[in-house]
Amino acid sequence: MRTRIVFLLVLALAAFQVSCRRQDAPGSKGRPVVVLLGLDGADWSLIDPLIAQGRLPLFKEMKETAAWGALRTITPAKSPVVWTTIATGKTRQKHGIDDFRRSKPNSKGKYPIVSSLDIREPLLWEMLEGRGRRSVLVNWYVSFPPQPFSGMNVSDYFADSVISRSPDREKHLLQSVFPPERAAGLVKGLDSDYRRALKRTGLPDYPALAEEIGDAGRLADLPVLHEIPDMVRREEVVTETAARLFRTEKFDLFAAYYKLPDEVQHIAYIALLEESFRRTMDLAARGGALPDDMAEKAHARIADVVCPVYQNLERILRGYFEAAGGRETYFIIVSDHGFSFFVRDGRVRYNHIGQEKAPDGILIVRGPGVKPGKIKLARVYDIAPTVLYLLGLPLDRGMDGKPLHRLFTFKRESGYVAYRKGKMKAQGDNSEAEERKLQELKALGYIN
Ligand SMILES: [Zn+2]
User: What's the fold here for domain 31-143+192-418?
Assistant: First the structure.
C-alpha cells in the first residue's frame, strides 16, 4: 500500500515537473506565442493598387491566406496616443497619453514630449510579466525610458542613440535599453550607413528624388526632407535589431514597431509628385472635396512612389515568417491609421490628421486556426485583448475592446482580472534625443 502511494506521488511529481518545464519554455509546443508588428501609417489604399500590379506578392498572399481588414482608429489619429491604446486596450483618457507632448508645462515652462512615465495603465508586457510570461519589445512608441519587465525592452530612443554622434552616446545607449547590460551586445555589428542601407533595403534616395521632381527652392523649405536619411538609418537599426532578437530570444510576446511608412507618406504628396499634378488636384477639388475618381488616381500615384517602402516591409515580414519555424505563432500586423486626401483652405492635402474622421489603419492576423478572409469590424481597442486571448491569459477588466474571437476556428476560455501597472523606473536624461525627436515632429508637421 505504502509503495503504491509513493509510486503515485512520484508520478504526480513528474507530471508537475513536466508542466513547470512547459511554463519555463516560451514558444515550446502547446504554448502559443504572439508577434505584434506595428507598421505606422500602413494603408490598404496604397497596398491594394500595388498588389493589383503584382508588386507586393507577400501582401497578396496574406490577403488570400490570413484574416485581414481595416482597423478603426481614434480621431485625431496621433501616433503616440494610438500605439499606447493598441498596447493597453484602453482609451486615451484612461492611459494618459493624449498627444505628442504633455499638456502641462515642466518647471522650465516647456511642454516635454510624452514618455513611458506618463502611461497610467498596464501595457501588455506588464500584464504578461505578472503571469510569468516573457516579452521582447523593440522600438515601441513611447517606450522611453525603458521600463523593466520580464524580458527585454529596446526602447524607441535606442536607434537614435546608435546613430548619434554625441559625446554622451555610450551613456544614452545604456539608458535606452532594459536591461542596460544588453546594450553593448545589441550595438555590435550594426551597420547604419545611409548608402549601404539604401542598397540593402532597395529604397530610393528620396531627398534626391524630390530634388529631381520638384523645384529646389520650395523643397529647401521642407525640413522633413533633410531628416529622411536619418529616418532610414534608424529604421535599419530597428529592423536588424528586431530580426536578431527574434531569432535568439525566448519570448511569449514579441512586439516591434516600424515608422518609415508614415514618414515617407508624409512627404509623398508634397515632395514626390510634380507641382502640375497637385495643381490639377486642387482644381478638381474646387467643390470642397476631391472627387472619388481623382482620389483614386492620386492614391495610385502615391502608391507608386512609396512602393519600395512596402517592398521593404515585405522583406522584413518574410524574415519573421521564415524565422518563426515550427512554433505555434500568431502574427498580428497593425497600423495606427491610414492616410487620406482632404481639402483645407482650397488645397488638397494628404495626411492622417486634420480630417473629421481619421483614416482607418490595417490589420492582418495570421497563424494556425485563423479563418482567412475579410475582417468586418475591428478597432484599435481590440488588439490588446486579442493578444491576451491568444496567449490564454485573462483579460483586463478596464479594457475598452474585446478579443476578436470570430477570427479563429477555436474558442479559448478567458476570464477577467485587474492587472496592475508595473513599478516605474525614473527618467534617464537624454535631452539631446528628446530635442531631435522634437525637431522630427516639427519637420513632420505634428507640432509647432
Ligand atoms: Zn502614426
Answer: Alkaline Phosphatase, subunit A (3.40.720)
